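Extended Data, panel c. Modelled sequence:
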Amino acid sequence: MSTHEHCQHHGMPRRELLKGLGAGFGWLALAGMAAAQNARNPLAPRSGHFPARAKRVIFLFMHGGPSQIDTFDYKPLLERDHGKPLPFAKPRIQFAQTGNIMRSPWKFAQHGQSGAWVSELFPHVATQVDKLCFVKSLHGTNEAHGGALLALHTGSDTFVRPSMGSWIVYGLGSENQDLPGFITLCPTLGHGGVNNWSSAFLPGIYQGTPIGNASTPAKNATIRHLANTRWRSDLQRSQLDLLQKQNAEHLAERPGDAALEARIESYELAWRMQGKAAEVLDIANESEATKKLYGIDNPVTENFGRQCLMARRLCEAGVRFVQCTHSYKWDQHDRLHELHTKNAAEVDLPIAGLLQDLAARGLLEDTLVLWGGEFGRTPTVQGSDGRDHNPHGFTMWMAGGGVKPGFSYGETDDYGFYAAKDKVHVHDLHATMLALLGIDHEQLTYRWAGRDFRLTDVHGRVVRELFA
């Protein structure tokens, strides 16, 4: 359904609606999901297609591709067959050549009542395994970082499509009208960059808002120009009202100008953020015990710990989708032991702290936490001590938000190269995530360029075995 068709359906021509809005944003409502009154506020909270298990998402993105067989997918045959050729064919298309089988440099042990296998890389996360729902049979189609990042974030590795965060806020709105519905903390500027948090052809109000970037320490990450010290609040409002009146008149002569509509909405959101964002971004009032829980007292864990604590605060404040990025760290074609050890030490304690804090505050029950990278690594060696990209079988985990705690689903082969049992494609991951949020992935659509688009394109199976 086009924007024009939607407006006519509710008995109001598009031009008249735009004039009446003042702000001039012609919002495309989601058929069967959004009530007509929400057309005046594209971020208004909305119900899904069925009862939701989760209300919000925190995505802990490990940029670069952590090795599943060195973290959570224990494969004892790697030890037995170290140095031997792989006993089956490698993929026809590979990012680069690899040699024989290489054992994991780390020991594994079982933890919790669930008995989940975790390597010694993650001693703190290991204490939380009974909260985790592992998916050990994920697979994708792209061996390169750029394509794999876009596929994980947008569902497509070849076209510019809306990010999953944008789709979720488009479908459900936000629980706080004074903050963006989708915030990404210290995101990567490479491997697709802004396209990984872009709203693409969705209205611009659903674009992810970056706070900092991968080259900015989290303690310095902020929203620029958040406060205006030159003008009183009432004068700023008068200036904005005049500007919005002129913009509305301008838009009335150019119906369908999505860029102008997005700019108009961004001005209003920026105005509202002045009173709320600074408070949410300031962690000064957090207790010393809480800061220690996230590792903010330790220079090794301080950076990612700040991101995780900020994610909790943003979720408490009603932000629908928050992403924390550990970038660009996990791409170990060589020096696997040295750098995976360093990387895990930076995120292990903050992740465990986040899970504990969410649970203690009653937030984990309806917050879906998702952990993982764009792909995994090969069980075969590259260089003297490395592993190549492997999209054919890797591990991600979820927690909270209606998934089974202390559960593991799917398997790779005996060496961890290919997803082998109960395979889960990235499209299936997206469909499952949307279902946990109460959204039917086949009905969350947007008409653009003559066809109906969705996050899962023409694919996707909801993995209901993961539901609690």
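Residues 1-41+228-273 form one domain. This feature is highlighted in the accompanying rendering.
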